[in-house]
Amino acid sequence: MTDNTPLETTFDVRFCETDALGHVGNTTLVEWFEAGRDPIFRFFTPELDLTNWPLILASYHVDFHAQLFYGKAVTIKTYISRVGKSSFETLQEAWQNGVKCATGTTTLVHFDFKTQRSAPISDDVKTQLMAHFREQ
To answer: Entry's InterPro entries (predicted)?
Structure first.
């Protein structure tokens, strides 16, 4: 399968996101990756209705490749790397100045809070997810 279009979000690095070493703190990447998944959340609940939230985070992993610095924008590219019956995985990259500085993978589960069980992902949502598929 060929690579599809990533979902992209760009952030201006804020001074408060830097640490004593002068680069972006490692926990900031987790926040940026979550914000980069907002368009995916809308596939499941277009209004981002927290009273009917359909996803839970099962796991995440971040690898750091290069330092990120204050004063230069960072772009988060979000892909879908796996779609199952009730769960899917995102593959995300953080880019600054044309350099891939970090990658992250996140497993999310479509979840029914009333029954406290995973729920199948609809075919419509699977189609939307696959429009952003990329082999890992």
So the answer is: 4-hydroxybenzoyl-CoA_TE, HotDog_dom_sf
